[in-house]
Design goal:
47% helix
Length: 163
Amino acid sequence: MINRPARDQLSRNLRRLIAGAITNHRFERSTPESEEDAAILAIADMSWLLYSDMKEHRLVGRYSIDPSWRREVLRWVLFLDNDFEYRWPRISLPGLSPMRRARPVVTRWLSGPNTISHERAAEFLAAGDYNAWPFISRSEYKHAVGHPRRLAGGQGASRRPAT
């Protein structure tokens, strides 16, 4: 289920965070929670990797994010601004390569809390086109790029076409 108010809030907060308009602490305090919209949890989980939570700062100067991460975040924002269901299986930090985090059960406890089994990583990757995450496919992503809600003159402009 899509929680439009929560998606709009997270989208706005992410745009403001990467622009340096709000601090990491302000971002954390204003990040919405939504049990019914899995996209909120997944993207908020990934957002934590954009900044240090050791001190308050803006993502400018020495704290600015790499251009490749900025592109990633803009894809997340594009997803949040559309009405596609989040259809990926739930794992922690879904935007970080699951196979790079996969570890055998016997060594997983040595590697930290964000490691997953090879089976879980394979299941996650089989769900869709990982290069399009959080979109499930490139066709969803391309549709969103071709029909941007923020530039299309209204909220309904990005709605998926009827199939």
